[in-house]
Amino acid sequence: MCSCSQPSKYDVAQAVFPQVVDFACETTDTPLSALFSSYRLVQLETNDSCLVGGERTKIVKREGVYYVRSVDRMMKGDNICLFDSDGRFLRKFERLGQGPEEYPSMTDFDVVNRGGGAEIWVSTYGGIKLYDAQTFAYKHTVPVPDVYVNHFKYISDSAIVLVDNGDMPYRVCDINGRMRRPSLPKDMANSLNYVNQFTEYQGRALYTYGSTQEALVYDPQLDSLYLQSVVPARDDLATATLARKYYDEYGGWDGLDKMHSEYGQLFTRVSGNQAIIMMYRPVNGGETTLTFIDGEKYKTVGVSEEGPSLKNDITDGEYLTFLFTLEACDSDDGFLFYIGDERYWDNKEIMEEENPLLLDVAGLSL
Q: What are the tens digits of pLDDT across the range 77-128?
């Protein structure tokens, strides 16, 4: 486990969301709009200099500005397009290169307000590069030598949670790259899912551990890094222990595919005291549910073609596939979904989309 002792108040058996004791679905159809207190559709005005799209698009909303990064099938995505609150293109950020103020590649990004204004943080080989979000001027490097920083979460100048490809890939450093005591050793069985993103709940950083029902949790008040179940433990969802079992028996990606064919997985996005948990289970040909949480209240709805289900009454199409973008979209004042070209799900050759939509949700209504 971790190099620091895990406090008893956060026992692994205790869930992050202990109130979600079951996932019983609503027995009648549920309009999607009925679950949101308010929402709006924002059309991004793209052009030849700011094309977006593809299955690995990440969007961050900060203070009314949308920061959009798209990754193509060659895993290239080294720039970020900025759009205003109405979807108008503002400019493109890119500092690709080999110089000390540039990044050789972009593995992930975030937009952080660190007291002196917004900053664009770019993770790359050797650390994290910081740039002024207004001028794009280089400001600082958080050095993490000899590894790719795949994901990160800024808590404070003394606590930045890292996920990298080194031997101790889950750790905490300060703004100058000094490594802190909490760390978790590398577990290849739970290091294959690269799409995960950090979220934050009750002051703690959460990162879905591999593709399991458990999360890597960092609590800055306790200065502890540990694993914790997201919801009360379920036998039909994958765990870190199961992932290791399948990895040892079938190998890397084959073991992951085999586990996913027999056990479910979940993803979580949090906004304040509200959260959305998406769960997929390989039963009845595949079952997807969304659980909407507001404090102690929660509601679970199914997404299926048969029986009571969530119904799309917000966009023109019937597809609800855009709900899967929950994991890769983050907003500072609610929830965000990327509604791309629905043809993509039938034609994987479509890479760039004209004027895609964002579903910007201010909050939940339960």
A: 689 999 999 999 999 999 999 999 999 999 999 999 998 799 999 999 999 9
Q: What is the dihedral of CA 342, 343, 347, 348, to 10 degrees?
A: -40
- 299-307's contacts with Cβ under 8 Å and 24+ in sequence apart are 299/26, 299/35, 299/366, 300/22, 300/23, 300/24, 300/25, 300/26, 301/25, 301/26, 301/30, 301/35, 302/25, 302/26
| Amino acid letter, 13 | A
pTM: 0.90
Q: What is the rounded CA–CA span in Å between residue 183 and residue 170? A: 6
